[in-house]
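Quick note —
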Amino acid sequence: MTSQQSQSPVPGAASYIQRKPDVLPRTCAEAKQMGQDCSAVQKLNISSQFSALEAACDEDWTVILRRHNSTVDFFRGWTDYVNGFGDLDGAYWLGLEAIYQLTSNTRHDLRVELEDWDDVRATAEYSGFSLSSASDNYTLFVQSFVGGDAGDSLTAHTGTQFSTKDRDNDRHSSGKCAHTHEGAWWYTACHSSNLCGEFKSHNPPAHGKGIQWSSWKGYHYSLKFAQMMVRPTQ
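Predicted structure written out below.
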């Protein structure tokens, strides 16, 4: 990124660009600092190497995944997951390349928000969230689990590459996790979480299928709502 950044007095704290009104923010956090409405869709210029795109904001968090109904099919191929898909006002996936560009140069935190079919909500928060580039199949990195009542179902996936039904990068010696669990994710052999699994009703799905976060609801419960959001570390 070529724009000049303001100095931050706290080591590791995010520095935001002082931008002219006609210049797009890079993140929802920056848009909020610029006084823009951060409860809706924002147009962001996340990197000089990437075209401007629209993303959903939740205050200063940039939403990278939202699941809450079955209107958008998430059992998709590699190209769709690289480019992103869905409805910005509903269920959507921002895209692997966009997430990589967003998190590669500035340290980011991750917040996961979940809801079950009894309208009970839970969260999980992580520090040091990022993805590697396409050449490494968008490997997931999370530095540490910070806390949250949903428990930790993501650290086990750190260091693994992303897999889809047509691109098998998991660590299973014989099976294909994306096919078995009808989704796409940073599968090991196979998963502790599966937030891009198929949307299921509240009826118990087969083991490991559906939108899952095992540390909270186990492997036979598909969640009603799931959201992943990132923001620069403050």
